[in-house]
Fold this sequence. Notes:
Layout: E1 16-21, H1 28-39, E2 43-45, H2 46-56, H3 59-69, H4 76-87, E3 95-99, H5 105-114, E4 121-127, H6 130-138, E5 141-143, E6 165-167, H7 173-195, E7 200-204, H8 209-224
Parallel strand pairs: 1-3, 1-4, 2-3, 4-7
Antiparallel strand pairs: 5-6
Helix pairs in contact: 1-8, 2-3, 2-4, 3-4, 4-5, 6-7
The protein binds zinc ion.
Amino acid sequence: MGNHVQPPRKGDGVALNIVMLGPPGAGKGTQAERLAGRHGLPKISTGDILREAVQSGTELGLAAKVTMEAGNLVSDDVMIGIVHERLTRDDAARGFVLDGFPRTVVQATALDGMMEGRGPLVVLDISVPEEVLVRRLAARRICGRCGANAAVEWTDTCGKCGGALVTRVDDGVEVVRERLKVFLRQTKPLVDYYSRRPTFRSINGNQPPDVVSGAIESALRDACGSAAL
Ligand SMILES: [Zn+2]
């Protein structure tokens, strides 16, 4: 796998292969986007590539479509195939920021296989205390004008269109707490799988977004050496 990906040329520095982990409400998507922007890397989120695979009508895309239309989760095999396809494109040869993959240890093991010859995989886990997440998620706001999700605590206007933010009413505290518990239980094996690696870093996500971004940059430098940055 991955043998048609060119290794980084000498002088180009090391490829930045990044996986972002973290529960809903931790700000992972926002940080993944910022991180990708700062380093000129593609941000690869599973939602986006699934949609794209379905639209493109490839064999894997069709398999995903059938599964999702039946209301089921896309299988490890299909997810792995779609991510593998995406990572072998030119724009990911110098690295990537993965958001939403891997979700399972099976997917993580497959990703390790794809990384052969591509340099180290840096895993950033955005960590936020459970009670803070519950508060954030239960108060999650959307833009009243365009419907975009808002970063919760730091602004009253939409980052996309400037519209006023309104509180979503469907997120009761108990529902949020239960959803979070399920997520944490399901993803714990994944965190365990990665957490003893020298390139794993836990990031304190209970800070303003700019401070979190700074912490991510320090962790990256620390994890792969300042030469690449
Ligand atoms: Zn808006």
